[in-house]
Design brief:
- This protein is of the alpha/beta class and about 475 residues long.
- The chain has two domains: about 15-295, P-loop containing nucleotide triphosphate hydrolases (Rossmann fold, 3-Layer(aba) Sandwich), CATH 3.40.50; about 300-480, Rossmann fold.
- About 35% of the residues lie in helices and about 15% in strands.
- The protein has 17 helices and 17 strands.
- It is globular.
- It starts with 12 loop residues before the first strand and ends with a helix.
Length: about 475
């Protein structure tokens, strides 16, 4: 049964043993640097509240993975991932997951969320039973492939079967699936349940990663409804080109339908941010859960230096912002890799073409890209150093070597207001695992300035402000960020 959803473009589907070679990530961060950075994540506390009783517990990561009660067969995989001791979210959530309880967890980027639910999944399935037992729901191909890599590494000794379900059509095999873990997007997994290839009644664990996206019925999945402005020197206007993707309401409907069919399943919801509306809705979806929530102030990452550069000339245009990017890329800065975010597919295309015409080798990624997997693999392997993208990778895209994130367009909601949560998700692509990162927000007119001010009002943050005429100063600030 072919799915019609936009998260199901080119087919990449099947047993993870055959597919995982496509998503192997070249580690570009010094292992010692990552261990030191991880230590900094283990010093703070996380608060867990039992929703039913109201009992509050504070956890600190002072135990080893072995002490969490994990299967010994998972320990070699943990070592393979270069994890020394659990992060605070892992120390708090894993014991709760192993007890079979529902969990709603909010923790910042790079805090170990993916490792938390991956270890939870692998701990809750029975490898002797060759039937689907756990479902991991994600909202993009890229995030699914990335989580597949983590699961595969942790699973090196356990021997669980993992099935990747993100294609636009059925794979070559027929009949019920035999893998214990199903990783994929809602459209495809719903099709597999409808066609009885996944017996929903056998699913005992379902995980929503980036749950605020999967459960939010009020927003578009990608901010592709906002048109651009102006063009660069005769290269044409940045017209508004809408994505062919589904709205979040469609995504939410499919995710909820899957959850409703898996009536007996333990439920885990993970995200870096939850709006109050989505959090209340999550409590209904995930009743009697243990709630792990960080305050807004804690969500803003301290290890990311944030800069705001405003184009304040007499006639500022998008061209002025491109000149800023060119100045940065030409400077001899200790930047390993850079991600540049645009709000529209058309914006990605125009910016990519402009940078390439100026001699900069860049890759592009959006929902209409002809070969999304190759673009991701080229960037993760280090073949390309700069990636221009839409919000397709704003959440969960985990490449430790990303040093710099540039908001070419300020993220906005479908109502045109500054989108603070998406801003935090975007800049969280840098500064992973406690490693220092840097982010830039570029503005050039009253609309973009107003949108960014809305974000700053909602999340008070320390942000250095410069004009586009202060290139030596902002370049030096970027240099000092590392």
């Amino acid at each position: 049964m072919a799915s019609t959803w936009a998260d199901d473009s080119e087919i990449v589907e099947g047993d993870a043993t055959e597919l995982v070679s496509k998503v192997q990530i070249e580690e570009q961060t010094n292992p010692e640097e990552r261990i030191d950075a991880q230590t900094s994540l283990q010093n703070s506390e996380v608060t867990v509240t039992d929703i039913q009783s109201g009992i509050v517990t504070r956890y600190k990561s002072d135990r080893s993975f072995a002490e969490l009660g994990l299967d010994e067969k998972l320990l070699p995989g943990i070592k393979k991932m270069d994890w020394s001791i659990p992060s605070q979210i892992q120390a708090a959530a894993i014991p709760l997951i192993l007890k079979g309880g529902n969990v709603i967890a909010q923790a910042h980027h790079g805090s170990g969320k993916t490792g938390t639910f991956s270890l939870g999944i692998l701990s809750q399935i029975d490898v002797q039973i060759h039937k689907p037992q756990a479902i991991l729901l994600l909202h993009t191909h890229e995030l699914a492939m990335q989580c597949l890599h983590v699961l595969y590494s942790l699973n090196s000794r356990l021997g669980a079967g993992i099935y990747l379900a993100i294609g636009g059509a059925s794979d070559e095999t027929k009949g019920p699936l035999t893998q214990q873990i199903i990783v994929g997007t809602p459209g495809r997994i719903r099709s597999l349940i409808t066609s009885n290839r996944i017996p929903a009644e056998l699913i005992k664990l379902i995980v929503f990663d980036e749950a605020d996206t999967l459960l939010d019925p009020s927003q578009d999945q990608a901010n592709n409804s906002q048109g651009g402005r102006g063009g660069r020197g005769g290269r044409g206007g940045r017209g508004g080109v809408n994505s062919a993707g589904p709205s979040r309401s469609s995504l939410a409907q499919q995710a909820l339908e899957i959850h409703q069919k898996c009536k007996n399943a333990q439920t885990l919801l993970f995200s870096a941010t939850f709006s109050e509306t989505v959090l209340e809705f999550a409590k209904v979806v995930c009743p009697n859960a243990s709630l792990i929530v960080l305050s807004k102030e804690e969500v803003a990452l301290d290890n990311i230096t944030q800069l705001h550069i405003d184009c304040g000339g007499e006639t500022p245009t998008q061209d002025s912002k491109i000149d800023i990017i060119a100045n940065i890329l030409e400077a001899n800065l200790p930047i390993k890799q850079t991600v540049i975010f645009c709000n529209t597919i058309q914006g990605v295309k125009l910016l990519t073409n402009a940078l390439r015409q100026d001699g900069f080798p860049v890759s592009a990624l959006h929902s209409a890209s002809e070969d999304r997997n190759s673009a991701v693999e080229d960037f993760k392997s280090g073949k390309t150093k700069v990636l221009v993208a839409t919000n397709l990778i704003a959440r969960g895209f985990d490449v430790p070597s990303i040093s710099l994130v540039i908001n070419f367009d300020i993220p906005v909601t479908k109502l045109g207001k500054g989108d603070a949560e998406t801003y935090l998700h975007r800049i969280g692509r840098s500064g992973r695992y406690g490693i220092k990162g840097c982010s830039l927000a570029l503005t050039f007119d009253s609309v973009s300035r107003g949108s960014f001010q809305t974000i700053c009002d909602e999340y008070p943050m320390q942000i250095q402000k410069f004009s586009d005429q202060e290139a030596p100063k902002y370049i030096e600030s970027i240099r000092k960020a590392f």
